[in-house]
Design goal:
globular; 441 residues; single chain; 14 helices; alpha/beta; 8-stranded parallel β-barrel; 3-stranded mixed beta sheet
Length: 441
């Protein structure tokens, strides 16, 4: 019996591989105006996250754009084809997979399974551009991986450990006898690609925020001047590309080569400019993927600097508050099909203050701020922009800490209390209305 990664996942949960149409999904389906693209909305994340994994897979297959229902998940899933430079135009949506992971008392796991459960409610790619999910964590974090702590105890996602496999927060080691961590990640990528969505991961480049793990000795701090460390960084990135990811979001990329370090807030040395050119070139070459999108955190108007580094998109250049300013920037950059600075709805440093109305306006601008759809700028949004978080937390807080909001120690209670309730549901509906008008462009 053939077991592709999705079937292996079903087997790991003692489920049969025969799939059935999901009526729950059909009742909540939203449709793009004028084409076959569909997803579910007017939902709360807890409704998605509390479903069984087979229900989530059946939901994904029920949303097939071809309107063909596959009673067995297909073996060969191709990434949505938007050409080699798709990253220049994409909408990037970051999911904090650690925050939505399964939290049982003081332990955290299975974040990639939670991402799979969220996939039906992520709008698919448009006709003219891709939507891309960025997952916040993939490597072990160095401040307490696999544990949740109090809401104000440091457990930063910005400190990572290389040469140590994948985070316990992300994969499920309880089922590794039936499906490996690598196949868990492959299953996520296959299911996302089936949904018509690209995928990527966040990584850091500040040397003192990276540790190199060793089997028989203490971890050591990463150093860009050590060729062995640089080689490890490349190898770890290529492994992820080989698992189906096509995008790498690079934290603090603006400051590579010592650029504008007066505003640098990371800890430790950064790679030199030619060194980063080499690293990005090697990741593309060794993975054999010409389609990889490298996204750099922050951009200035020196666009050639970032393009020549190997990047495709840069964040935090312009917000979506002024529709006309974004439209004119789109017109200005329309002849550059390789790199563009993008429209930001919210970034990972957001600490609150944006109303629902302002957020919806920014999404509207990001999706429609152009004269021609083929000239659209890339955009960047967070989980909070589609599924609003509870009022006493924010995007940056759950990047820096890993609290459980469960009232009884159960995962379901955490999922119910991490996000807003009725107003969040209505907001999710309003976001869906915007995407409904954009996906056929």
């Amino acid at each position: 019996m053939n077991k592709n990664p999705t079937n292996k996942l079903l087997h790991a949960f003692n489920e049969t591989m025969i799939l059935h149409p999901d009526e729950w999904t059909k009742e909540r389906t939203y449709y793009a105006h004028g084409c076959c693209k569909k997803w579910i909305a007017n939902v709360l994340p807890s409704e998605l996250l509390s479903r069984e994994i087979k229900q989530s897979i059946e939901s994904i297959v029920t949303l097939s754009e071809s309107n063909i229902f596959y009673d067995k998940f297909p073996n060969n899933i191709e990434t949505p084809n938007y050409g080699d430079s798709w990253g220049r135009f994409a909408n990037y949506i970051e999911l904090n997979n650690r925050a939505i992971a399964k939290m049982q008392y003081d332990r955290t796991c299975c974040g990639i399974l939670s991402c799979i459960k969220m996939l039906p409610a992520i709008p698919p790619s448009a006709k003219s551009w891709a939507n891309c999910i960025i997952i916040s964590q993939i490597f072990p974090n160095i401040y307490g991986d696999s544990y949740n702590k109090g809401p104000f105890e440091e457990n930063s996602i910005y400190g990572i450990k290389l040469n140590a496999g994948y985070s316990d927060n992300v994969v499920s080691y309880a089922i590794v006898d039936k499906i490996s961590p690598e196949d868990q990640l492959r299953a996520f990528n296959d299911l996302a690609h089936f949904r018509g969505i690209k995928t990527g991961f966040r990584t850091v480049i500040s040397a003192d925020q990276i540790k190199v793990a060793h089997q028989n000795k203490d971890d050591e701090t990463f150093r860009w001047c050590d060729p062995n460390h640089v080689e490890l960084y490349i190898q770890e990135s290529v492994k992820l590309m080989d698992l189906g990811f096509e995008c790498m979001f690079i934290d603090s990329a603006k400051h590579i080569g010592g650029y504008d370090c007066n505003n640098y807030t990371g800890i430790g040395d950064l790679p030199e400019y030619p060194q980063m050119q080499y690293i990005l070139h090697e990741i593309r070459a060794r993975s054999g993927k010409t389609t990889i999108s490298f996204v750099g955190e922050k951009s200035t108007d020196d666009f050639g600097r970032y393009q020549n580094m190997g990047l495709n998109a840069g964040t935090d250049f312009i917000t979506g508050d002024d529709f006309y300013a974004v439209r004119e920037l789109s017109e200005k950059l329309k002849y550059n099909r390789i790199y563009a600075a993008g429209v930001e709805i919210e970034n990972d440093n957001y600490e609150g203050g944006i109303s629902y109305e302002q957020r919806l306006n920014r999404i509207n601008t990001a999706l429609f701020g152009f004269y021609q759809a083929s000239d659209k700028l890339p955009s960047f949004m967070q989980m909070n922009d589609i599924f609003p978080l509870r009022y006493d937390t924010n995007t940056h807080h759950i990047m820096m800490t890993n609290p459980s909001y469960s009232e009884d120690g159960s995962p379901i209670s955490h999922w119910e209390n991490l996000f807003t309730k009725d107003d969040g549901r209505f907001y999710n509906h309003k976001v869906a209305e915007l995407f409904a008008h954009a996906l056929c462009l």
